[in-house]
# Entry
Amino acid sequence: MSTIGFDVWGVVASALGTVALAPVIWSWFQPRLPTSMIGGVVEIHKETQELFATALRDGLITDPGEIRHFEKSLVE
# Structure
């Protein structure tokens, strides 16, 4: 008996499985792209700058060396 029917079914099933798996992989991969994450990073940076300004205004950081260090770190 010929196995060509099984070979064709294997190719068809593999192709359908690959096509069905592509959206799942894309939905897992898309939120991890840099363009998806940059908004959150920008918001965290703004919040950090606000907290730093509050700490300076309240006098919690007084050492000029530390202030320069923090300012340099926030810019980079």
